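Practice problem 4.
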């Protein structure tokens, strides 16, 4: 990121090669197939280029930073097109891994291992907590919208999301490296 901040275009290209597929997959997962996900990906890398100085490694790794930016922009687009139909919710288990960049096999392997750990942690959550988190994360629904969708009281939805996140944090704690978000 220091190289991107110094306006090294090769560093940005390397960042794209390493994480572009995964970020596109996330955007497609939220928005559905189509050009909108590709536009989000372009926006995210433009953001990374312009705001590289705001990246703080103490708060997480680069992939986490980029995924948050991708998710935020995707949800903004999703909300902007309401009440138009949305892609049907799919579970976390259906998210597929994008092909790895051929020159970064080690990073791709570590990333697949980390994703397996994350998927296992999510699969251990009670169904109601997992569903609430999937609706919030993948469809960008608010707590009230989740309550309406699941026909649950608002307070129950808030509790499910909070408990689910707390359980995930606890399950992932042994894998964190000095506050980092991944391998």
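Answer key:
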């Amino acid at each position: 990121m220091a190289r991107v901040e110094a306006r090294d275009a090769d560093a940005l290209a390397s960042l794209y090669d390493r994480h572009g597929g995964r970020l596109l997959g996330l955007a497609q997962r939220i928005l559905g197939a189509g050009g909108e996900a590709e536009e989000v990906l372009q926006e995210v890398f433009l953001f990374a280029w312009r705001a590289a100085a705001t990246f703080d490694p103490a708060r997480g790794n680069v992939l986490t930073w980029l995924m948050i930016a991708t998710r935020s922009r995707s949800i903004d687009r999703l909300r902007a097109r309401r009440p138009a139909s949305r892609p049907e919710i799919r579970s976390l288990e259906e998210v597929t891994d994008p092909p790895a960049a051929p020159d970064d096999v080690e990073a791709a392997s570590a990333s697949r291992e980390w994703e397996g750990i994350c998927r296992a942690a999510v699969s251990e959550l009670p169904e109601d907590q997992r569903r609430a988190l999937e609706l919030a994360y993948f469809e960008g629904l608010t707590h009230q919208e989740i309550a309406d969708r699941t026909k649950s009281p608002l307070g129950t939805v808030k509790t499910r999301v909070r408990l689910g996140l707390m359980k995930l944090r606890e399950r992932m704690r042994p894998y964190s490296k000095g506050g980092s978000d991944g391998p």
